[in-house]
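Renewal narrative, Specific Aim 1. Our central claim is that a sequence can be written position by position from structural information alone. The example that follows is taken directly from our test logs and has not been curated for this report. It begins with the structure tokens describing the chain, in the order in which they were read.
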């Protein structure tokens, strides 16, 4: 039985100058949220080890609702107004991983497992070049032919829907199951990193894989049946 694998395509976007401003502002807002959240998780790490759901427990610390009218960290209510719930949960997963990684490295250093005796302990750095995961329907909506996409973005004062042209894409969306994409911004380009779950074609009979490992070029692989 052929198991499913996940492959990621980069779908280039063609935003207007206004849309690009909002896309960059969205990434910046998400990173600021993750940074602040990392400190909260680090400070409550011991208590959070005994909860049934880390997401529910962390949201109770930062998110105000009717049932949770006085969260411990009110900074998030004031600073991140109307922050989308699905984006908040994506940030929780990311920040949790950041803190867990730091504490694992710190415990390793404390145990004496070091390359040199004078190696300094790892420093907690919550600043990361992370990108927001866009959950379908709530943060991102593709049109029927994948020529445009609606993305929920931060315009500096509110969260709004912005329609953006998809400039280029591959064809995995025709055969694979699309998963939640990531919004990736650089100085010159904007694109969606779109993962797909696909099933490779099962090849029967004898197969041979020949690989030419180049010195100054990429390796070339050929499958012969």
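The sequence written for that structure reads:
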């Amino acid at each position: 039985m052929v198991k499913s694998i996940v492959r990621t395509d980069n779908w280039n976007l063609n935003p207007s100058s206004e849309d690009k401003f909002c896309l960059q502002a969205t990434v910046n807002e998400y990173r600021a949220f993750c940074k602040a959240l990392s400190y909260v998780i680090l400070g409550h790490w011991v208590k959070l080890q005994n909860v049934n759901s880390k997401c529910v427990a962390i949201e109770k610390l930062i998110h105000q609702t009717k049932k949770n009218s006085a969260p411990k960290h009110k900074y998030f209510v004031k600073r991140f107004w109307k922050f989308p719930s699905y984006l908040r949960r994506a940030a929780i997963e990311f920040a949790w991983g950041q803190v867990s990684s730091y504490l694992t490295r710190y415990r390793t250093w404390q145990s004496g497992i070091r390359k040199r005796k004078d190696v300094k302990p790892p420093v907690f750095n919550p600043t990361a070049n992370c990108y927001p995961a866009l959950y379908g329907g709530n943060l991102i909506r593709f049109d029927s032919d994948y020529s445009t996409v609606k993305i929920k973005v931060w315009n500096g004062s509110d969260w709004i829907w912005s329609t953006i042209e998809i400039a280029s894409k591959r064809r995995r969306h025709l055969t694979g199951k699309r998963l939640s994409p990531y919004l990736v911004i650089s100085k010159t380009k904007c694109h969606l990193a779109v993962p797909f779950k696909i099933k490779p074609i099962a090849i029967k009979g004898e197969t041979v894989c020949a690989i030419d490992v180049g010195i100054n070029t990429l390796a070339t692989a050929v499958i012969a049946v």
